[in-house]
Amino acid sequence: MKNGLPPIWVKQYEPGVSPTLEYPAVTLSDILHQTTEKYPEKTAFIFADRSWTYQEFNELVSRLANALIGLGLTTGDRVGLYLPNCPQFITGYFGIARAGGAVVPINPLLSGDDLAFIIKDSGSRIVITCTELLPALEAVADADLKIIVTSIAALLSPEKCTVPTTANRFALEKLLAEAPATDPKVNIDHQSIANLQYTGGTTGRSKGAVLTHANLIANARQFFEWFKNVYQEGEGRFLGVIPFFHIYGLTTSMIAPVMTASSIILHTRFDINEIMQSINKYKPSLFMGVPSMYAAIAMRENQEYDLSSIRACVSGSAPLPPAIQEQFQKVTGGKLVEGYGLSEASPIVTVTPIYGKIKHGSIGVPISDTQIRIIDPESGEDITEPWQIGELWVKGPQVMQGYWNKPEETELVLTDGWLHTGDLVQMDEEGYLYIADRLKDMIIMGGEKIYPREVEDFLYTHPAVKEVAVVGVPHPLRGEMPKAFVVLKEGAETTAQELRRYCIAHLSRFKVPKIQIIDALPRNSVGKVLRRLLREEEF
Questions:
Q1: Distance CA 536, CA 539 (A)
Q2: 443-536 maps to CATH 3.30.300.30
Q3: d(CA 226, CA 217)
Q4: Beta strands 126-130; 146-150: pairing state
Q5: Strand ranges (DSSP E) for 291-413?
């Protein structure tokens, strides 16, 4: 392979899985139409014991697309989707796409400055949200922002809608009831922007990864190819609990199921009792998640629930402990493997073969049409020998176009189509990859990315703080969490509890760190803070 490693990993592919695929020049709206034409009565999604067929889903999407156009949406406009997993999220996503807009999925855990930044940076003039999140949105919204509000409990039914409307506040269910159910036939290029996925990337503050219809559909197609020995078109049943506002959930548990005429069993959050009951009742065959989810199922007494419908799962976002993998497979009878991806790659890059060789600690092998390079961070040269550590570079049809309105940031991470992931990896003799470390000190808490510098900068605004360093420390369920080591100014008086309350008042909840006040930060001979010692030592 020119400018890259030879594809030794292809030998690990399961029978029938092709290393090279064809990708149709279609949009997200097109794939929903195609699925509806072939499987109109197939269940598209289930939520709160109600189900919708693909025919009903497709009509709702057209109604929303027409409503958005009626509100002034034009091709290329960005629309925020500030919702948890629910029927309104799926309808909103495909409705925005059918209207020619670009979706901006927003984490419903965000609030305050974090929420305001994404709305402003993306240029979103319309945001779809729910009554539970409306106060947080209104706290940062300007007078011109149009807000479409739904009550999740209304289940897309106009007769259940109780949301009041004002000049710039619209009830989703009323819009759907009043709009036509025919496709508005907007001319959309498959290479146009479908999604602005906000991520910290490998440096700095949150940035919008520009993902086209072609990017997302390619990755969904790659995903289905990897699972072709697990389920066939029209047969899949996905447990949709991994958040769709994350690109991992969006591609694997929403777009890929729609492409393959699968049913999605929706959950707004991971509640172990609800999940166990749902698996027992609705018999999902596929379940994409994170280690903490699989751990909760593996460690629970399961005698009263039938989990045997689970056939295959992929764990992402954090390392999968072998003990959890083995126990989960024991209680379900299904396969649980590990994968790797990032927002800038739509997101899937590598997955362990579902029925192939499993190597504990490995993130698997590159999927179809995915080239990789391992680059020595110091010399910039390709590493071609096994087990040598270097930065992972990725190239493929799923790689983003760049960061939204950030050409300088884009140049830092894209070189001739090669995406610099910022992750240090090593490859064994058979092409299996292993994460060695991170180039940056990013913290991943239950799948949420937290950047120490951002939390540090905020704590420096407190008048009593002289110095601060934030590191990731182990957490039994979420993998890791932020902890701030704070040095106070001479004569200043405050407590860890007061500093934590200060953070709670201004930061998104998942970014609020544990806090420990210490006398001095450990430093090396040139004054650099030794974060490793902060992680390892108890003060």
A1: 10
A2: yes
A3: 14
A4: parallel
A5: 312-315, 335-341, 348-351, 365-366, 371-375, 390-395
Domain regions of the chain by residue span: 28-188, 443-536
Tokens standing for 23? 């990708």
Sheet hosting strand 50-53, strand order edge to edge = 50-53, 43-47, 263-266, 237-240, 286-289, 312-315, 335-341, 348-351, 365-366
342/345 Cα distance (integer angstroms): 6
CATH of domain 28-188: 3.40.50.980
Contact 348, 326 (CB under 8 A): no
DSSP state at residue 383: P
The CA distances from residue 323 to 300, 327, 340, in Å, are: 14, 6, 19
Q: What is the pTM of this model?
A: 0.84
pLDDT in tens, the chain (539 residues): 444 555 899 999 999 999 999 999 999 999 999 999 999 999 999 999 999 999 999 999 999 999 999 999 999 999 999 999 999 999 999 999 999 999 999 999 899 988 999 999 999 999 999 999 999 999 999 999 999 999 999 888 888 888 888 889 999 999 999 999 999 999 999 999 999 999 854 444 689 999 999 999 999 999 999 999 999 999 999 999 999 999 999 999 999 999 999 999 999 999 999 999 999 999 999 999 988 899 889 988 767 899 999 999 999 877 788 888 999 999 999 999 999 999 999 999 999 999 999 998 899 999 999 999 999 987 999 999 999 988 999 999 999 999 999 999 999 999 999 999 988 899 999 999 998 766 666 788 887 878 777 788 799 899 999 889 899 988 877 788 999 999 998 899 999 999 999 999 999 999 999 999 999 988 753 445 777 788 876 44
DSSP 468-488: EEEEEEEETTTEEEEEEEEEE
Residue 27 backbone phi and psi in degrees, to 5: -105, 175
- For residue 385, the SS3 value is coil
Backbone angles phi and psi of 525, in degrees to 5:
-65, -20
Using CA atoms, how far residue 117 sits from 2, 143, 460, 501, in Å, is: 41, 16, 20, 22
d(CA 164, CA 171): 7
